[in-house]
Specification:
The protein has about 280 residues and is mostly helical. Helices cover about 60% and strands about 0% of the residues. The protein contains 14 helices and no strands. Helix 3 packs parallel to helix 8. It is globular and about 65 Å long.
């Protein structure tokens, strides 16, 4: 006889545990701190789902399954729409409300979100210096190291193109292949997938820009709470930083750093191919 308690909505989703994870630091609690915690926790859940989906899509591409990759990409793009909408919730908070608990967060910072950093690595923006944000052997360091070593979306896409007899060894070959995809109706499905990747890339560029604007709206260009963390990824050796991450912005926490992150692209060749279409 099975005496196991039947599963229900609360037990399956662990609602009691989930709603018990919000622990405001302000005493008495600043009204907007609950909103701040819930929105950021929701972001981390969406990042978890996105990394889950992208790993599956990379596997599908490597196995030659384009139709399933397109389906997964559609879901990812719907998730990025939600990410952008959540910024609107954050913007309902006034600067003075944020100041009611901001100083208690130091040195915590969104810069420390290893799930977002893994997502960036998987999407093509890899920078080994970010490993310096996490202690060796920590969950964040292990996850980011794994993401750094594994194929990106673009790597998997190039592997799929090779299966279709496209040449992808060098960037000029990849551009030539993309031009064929964009101009030959035979490759309409690939064309559609490329545009789905563009939607994903553009949506994250919009999200990063809106994140920067929201932060500037809250604190102007004050140093961020994670200033100590940014110091861990300074360019302290002679290796030049990529152009998108060079200069003082990369060395300062807060809004300066967020502003420096508004331009990088996940799939630069998809943006460049537009220049070669006639």
């Amino acid at each position: 006889m099975n005496n196991k308690t039947p599963i229900n909505y609360e037990s399956y989703l662990k609602i009691s545990e989930l709603t018990g994870l919000q622990s405001p630091l302000s005493q008495p609690m600043s009204h907007d701190e609950m909103q701040f915690i819930v929105v950021h926790q929701a972001y981390e859940l969406w990042f978890k789902l996105l990394t889950h989906e992208i790993k599956a899509m990379i596997s599908c591409l490597e196995q030659g399954n384009l139709s399933q990759s397109i389906s997964i990409m559609k879901r990812c793009n719907e998730i990025t729409t939600v990410l952008n909408q959540q910024i609107l919730v954050m913007e309902t908070m006034s600067p003075t409300s944020f100041l009611g608990f901001r100083n208690l967060l130091n040195p915590a910072s969104g810069l420390q979100s290893y799930q977002f950093r893994c997502l960036e690595f998987m999407s093509g923006l890899k920078n080994e210096r970010y490993l310096g944000l996490y202690e060796a052997g920590s969950v964040g360091h292990n996850a980011l190291t794994k993401a750094f070593l594994e194929p990106t979306i673009w790597d998997a896409f190039m592997k799929y193109l090779q299966l279709q007899r496209f040449t992808t060894e060098e960037e000029k070959d990849q551009l030539a292949s993309l031009k064929i995809i964009y101009t030959n109706p035979k490759w309409d499905s690939l064309h559609f997938f490329c545009e789905s990747l563009m939607d994903y890339d553009e949506s994250f560029r919009v999200w990063r820009h809106r994140h920067f604007l929201m932060a500037e709206r809250m604190i102007g260009f004050k140093p961020g709470t994670g200033q100590q963390e940014v110091s861990k990824i300074k360019n302290e050796d002679s290796t030049p930083l990529p152009p998108s991450e060079s200069g003082q912005a990369f060395r300062e926490a807060g809004v300066h750093y967020l502003k420096s992150r508004t331009e990088p692209k996940y799939f630069p060749l998809l943006w460049e191919v537009r220049m070669h279409l006639v």
